[in-house]
Amino acid sequence: MKKERTLEQKFQVSFQFKVLFTHQIFDVDNTILHKLLSENAMNTSKALVVVDSGVKDAHPTLLPAIENYFDNFGKSIALQGDILEIPGGEAAKNDEALIKSILDKVNRFGIDRHSYIIAIGGGAVLDAVGFAAAIAHRGVRHIRIPTTVLSQNDSGIGVKNGINSYGKKNFTGCFASPYAVINDATFLTTLDDRDWRSGIAEAIKVALIMDLDFFEWIETEADALANRNMEVMDELIYRCADLHMQHIRTSGDAFEQGSSRPLDFGHWAAHKLEQLSHFSLRHGEAVAIGIALDSTYSQLKGYLNQPSLYRILNLMTTLGFELHHPELNDQVIQGLEEFREHLGGQLTIMLLNAIGKGFEVHEMDEELVLEAMNYVQQYSAQKIEM
Amino acid sequence: MKKERTLEQKFQVSFQFKVLFTHQIFDVDNTILHKLLSENAMNTSKALVVVDSGVKDAHPTLLPAIENYFDNFGKSIALQGDILEIPGGEAAKNDEALIKSILDKVNRFGIDRHSYIIAIGGGAVLDAVGFAAAIAHRGVRHIRIPTTVLSQNDSGIGVKNGINSYGKKNFTGCFASPYAVINDATFLTTLDDRDWRSGIAEAIKVALIMDLDFFEWIETEADALANRNMEVMDELIYRCADLHMQHIRTSGDAFEQGSSRPLDFGHWAAHKLEQLSHFSLRHGEAVAIGIALDSTYSQLKGYLNQPSLYRILNLMTTLGFELHHPELNDQVIQGLEEFREHLGGQLTIMLLNAIGKGFEVHEMDEELVLEAMNYVQQYSAQKIEM
Ligand SMILES: NC(=O)c1ccc[n+]([C@@H]2O[C@H](COP(=O)([O-])OP(=O)(O)OC[C@H]3O[C@@H](n4cnc5c(N)ncnc54)[C@H](O)[C@@H]3O)[C@@H](O)[C@H]2O)c1
Ligand SMILES: NC(=O)c1ccc[n+]([C@@H]2O[C@H](COP(=O)([O-])OP(=O)(O)OC[C@H]3O[C@@H](n4cnc5c(N)ncnc54)[C@H](O)[C@@H]3O)[C@@H](O)[C@H]2O)c1
Ligand SMILES: [Zn+2]
Ligand SMILES: [Zn+2]
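Structure tokens for the assembled complex are given below, as produced in the milestone run.
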């Protein structure tokens, strides 16, 4: 008789990082980055820097400013080789050779687990560089400097990275915590209007599921946001990042091992719409439509009252979001099944009981989803009076 | 005046898995694997299987047995495509195309985060397949079926994976917990003597730093182990895996974010020796030499008494380990500096106060290391009487 036995393993891993809000990060009087780079036992801290080409183009003095910043601190920090420029947007995630080019530099310059890889760019560039940093030596210190609203208030402060493979978004990637995140508001001045607006959708999302106060503040400041008021945007990003981080901290499932995705309110339809539009829709633009759809569904199903629904739809309209899109049709329904598969068999969708109060359901009435779709379309064609 | 603010993020992620000890895992009466594969909300659980070519060659009925096992359980579990065979040993980790071939199958067969990737093989195959599983969809359920002593009692029950790039061991990889590990003792019968012995070095290592009782048990059973007694090996692996897992669980640093590596007793020299021998030395063979060196150093430095040192050296000799190697020369000393860099600037080395009691130092006396090297060499040439 052979012995059958079992050992049970169970342990916790702690992750910790700071999100620092600043301006003019590469001004030599700004010592935030220098301090972060000096947090090790090395005499000289090595750093690789990777920059989003869109950011570089919009900020022609950025590269010399970075070089000057490193020179200014003498031997304590050392920029390794040339600053690596990679294309901004999905192009950064569609080309595996870019990951290889970062790993090449890690090898060439002897970057180790106590050196730094700094990424400056939008969410796409951060996702790609973050992946390379996570798999080099099983994780090199990775500092993110997000340059879009979405990456400063959502993707950049999270723990996911990834690239697209086989034509599929985020097919390859992993969970990894950044070493630190630095949100420099200066970058946002050069965003085009669509990217400025797009990131606001995630703030509305997190306000709707968690924080009535924040929602009302966004309502108050909606015109200022639409007019690109920087101070208001600063505040929006800070509060939104704070809520996202709170959620990740308290969810008990930061690495998404379970089958609930509360931060994905409005996202089942958004993911499908992004795909149906061949990614001509920005993520935040698709999320706005997804929010409109699931809020309307919540109202039709009797969970959310009508005045609340109008507030939600009106806020998004004031901010300039299109709530309808040619691809918002029956095919979107397939997104429900894809989301269910993604979650591993059981569907879990966040809906609204009230503004600031999300709750989860495990079934969606497809007829009613189609009705909600129709309603959003009529609202957006201004056929519905409020 | 611009506002400078900071948000602090801190959270913990829980990891949990079982290590199941069994025999004849693909016997249709053995339901362990079927149970693991059924732990999701799917009607049919999809699984990819990857096998070490060395294991397949030594077990010619393995592949048909796996296919038969899946067939036997009907629609509840489904093997996806052909069983993928990859070369055993370091070859598995030297060819990036193998990772790609696993990801190709993940894509082709719609493997998602709730499907399974099963790897059957030695530590090298598990490291490579584990890496692919960790980065596909940010982590597909990964079941490890280790087939060597080392992988059953050490590497397979840990949380590291990786492949070799740029000629460097484990250059690319990440930390990821397996979904489950199944140690099937049946595989060990076909190991060659070097691989049988090699894994025993890790058991001696963990006994020396943590558990006098276990060390004395190994002493008692040394002849049985040398004569390939299977029941004794079963027990050795179980106790060694248990100690390793305990250590990982209680270290507070399972993902090695700090700069202490207690489980790497004897490993600074071992890593250098593996490299100097162009990997003609097995990992465990190099670890045995590293243990001899650091135990001798502990004695010369006055931490460990001489009878204890003799017990250690004698045990390894009885088990058939060579404690000297042509590459054990002055160059090994460089391993100290490389280990220091690997730890991020501060050297931390485990030494012995007594058998079963490791402690850490932050400095090594290089003269004394050379003396220890000389001593081990003389001992091994039987110039030292005991
Ligand atoms: N990791 C996560 O948790 C997570 C979460 C949500 C979204 N994402 C990913 O984020 C990506 C979207 O990121 P995004 O919305 O930040 O946009 P983006 O990275 O796609 O960038 C959009 C465009 O703006 C340019 N740009 C960036 N910063 C600029 C600036 N300051 N001035 C002028 N131009 C600038 C870029 O070059 C690019 O052309 C997607 O790939 C999405 O999958 C990741
Ligand atoms: N991930 C970790 O924490 C960790 C820890 C230590 C070592 N490792 C890695 O593990 C690898 C070494 O693993 P290993 O010692 O298990 O050897 P191995 O995987 O290199 O295999 C050695 C040889 O044995 C063959 N083999 C495997 N099982 C067999 C069986 N049952 N019968 C006959 N032949 C069999 C293989 O085909 C191969 O030729 C190294 O790459 C090392 O870096 C990883
Ligand atoms: Zn989003
Ligand atoms: Zn080892």
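The longest helix of chain B spans residues 230-251. Chain B touches chain A through 69 residues (CB under 8 Å). Further analysis is deferred to the final report.
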